[in-house]
Amino acid sequence: MSFRLTLRPVALALSLGLAGLAPSAHALNIVLRDISSTPMTAEQLGAFQQAANYWSSKLTDNVTVYIDVGFNSLGANILGQASSSASSVSYSTLRSALVNDAKSATDATAVSHLQTGSSLSFYATQGDLSTRLDNDNTANNRFLSVNTANLKALGLTTNTTANNPDATIIFATGFASSFAYSRVNGQVPANKTDFITVAEHEIGHALGFVSGVDSIDECLAANNSCKNSFETQAWYSPLDLFRYSAAGKLDVTVGGTRYFSIDGGATAIESFSTGAYNGNGWQASHFGTSVITLMRPFVGDGQSYDATTSDLLAFDAIGWDVAAAVPEPASYALLLGGLAALGLKRRRQAA
Ligand SMILES: [Ca+2]
Ligand SMILES: [Ca+2]
Ligand SMILES: [Ca+2]
């Protein structure tokens, strides 16, 4: 059995402004609040905290993200629910924030391939499920839906607080016994789902690993009046700025073959899932299914893992500051070799 990792985004209107001060070098602080009807056990809360601590060890943005967590009774067969607050932001504002926040080589590549101007051009699914190149400068081209935690990573302010959190992650009490809440030598029993992996995944959604393609797909599946607002509001996310189907082809259509790319589609880093209803059967707010990544749409029993390089590249590109990786031994050798050569050159110059 595998644990299906789902996401239910909720958009909230929030005020938005530019933060005044440059962040200093610290770490992401995640504040968890237990909103279970019966308080979580110390073991359960500890596992949630371990997942939060994991992200704090990887992301160095000096911001605080508030997440309500817990176990409650949910509807039949619902394992868990995660939702994030989000705000509509103009593409111009978002692009400026991405440029100003760029620190890594990944960021430099990513921002240099962003479309210029104030209106995006992309391939999009229409209300009748057809596809067209949407470059008509309507609201869906000019505004994006950005998770409040992602806004914080970009130095943009929100009005979230401990009582008005950035996200809510709730699991079903009925499935509580199917989880293992601690890892032993990095592993969990073969018949248990690793709660820490699941919690890290859900926090990843809260931090901005989401796609507006799911909102379109779910609207089409429900066949309701939201189809009439595809052009008139923000639907797509910062992560959708890196969703391609070919070189130069930004593509937020439901279904097909889509991949994560930071160089305008020239290089595919990882495949994306493409929709629970009209796509590959999995929510588009995930990487694909064939490679183990933290943000793939499911975790199998007995499996334990954290973010991969692909996962971290995505968080880096959408505005997070990723802690520098510890160089591998071969890189150390290269670095030391480089320093030795530099020292030699200086001595020669001094001689
Ligand atoms: Ca449009
Ligand atoms: Ca970054
Ligand atoms: Ca940042």
From TrEMBL:
It comes from the Bacteria. Residues 1-27 form the signal peptide. Pfam families: PEP-CTERM (PF07589). The keyword Signal applies. The keyword Kinase does not apply. Residues 325-348 form the Ice-binding protein C-terminal domain. Keywords: Signal. This is Ice-binding protein C-terminal domain-containing protein. It comes from Roseateles puraquae.
